[in-house]
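>> Question from a student workshop board

For tomorrow's exercise we were told to take the sequence and the ligand below, predict the bound structure, and bring the output to class. My setup keeps failing. Could a helper post the expected result so I can at least see what it should look like? The ligand is 1,3-dihydroxyacetonephosphate.
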Amino acid sequence: MIVANWKMHFDYKKALEVGCAIKSKLSDAKAEIAVCAPFVYLKDLSECFKNSNIKLGAQNLYFEDEGAYTGEVSAMMLKSVGCQIVIVGHSERRQLFGEDDNMINKKIKSAIKHNITPILCVGESLSQRQNNETFTIIENQLAKDLLDIKETVIIAYEPIWAIGSGKVANSEQIFEVHEFIKKFIDTKVLYGGSVNAQNAGELSKIQNVDGFLVGGASLDAQKFYEIALNFEKEKGVS
Ligand SMILES: O=C(CO)COP(=O)(O)O
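>> Workshop helper replied:
Here is what the output should look like for this input. Compare the format with yours to find the bug.
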């Protein structure tokens, strides 16, 4: 599974241009492909992704369905514009907007209630890794974020120090964290953090990597396409 996280990029015209280019390049992809776009572009992207295998995703949600929550967007609303996937607990939201595990847990439950597949992001900071706290941090995030949740949640392992830094985690680091996550919950685990067209093939060789959550390189349809292609080649997805 290869997921684009566009973060807060593009104006309307560019979002539709890149979204539609991704659709035309990847509509026959064997790997599962999803694009997580800013809220305001979702409706039109859902039109563009119609009759293709590309899934539509959001990058956040609020856990209540409706009410006096100025500026928020609910799972019910996302579902009504064709959203099938939602990223929850991205480190940027945890760090910049103080999103805590309790809130993340409620968001995941709300997504599931509306039949939207959550992608839960977990990962350690550089200082946590240097202090040998990686597994404690990840176990803590998984335990709290997935409290009382039995349904399918996709996990993305995104070491904070690897995001947007050009510093990719090495194969051993990724393998052992994915193994740890899979012991906690038997599900798909994606890797995220400086994935690009050049390193995607090598990263795909890691047996327990089930796909990628791609930031920067997903802003270019050709680069995103090459990542998916290299993944399919290495994994023998056909
Ligand atoms: O945060 C990420 C995806 O959610 C990763 O971002 P980059 O691919 O830009 O490092």
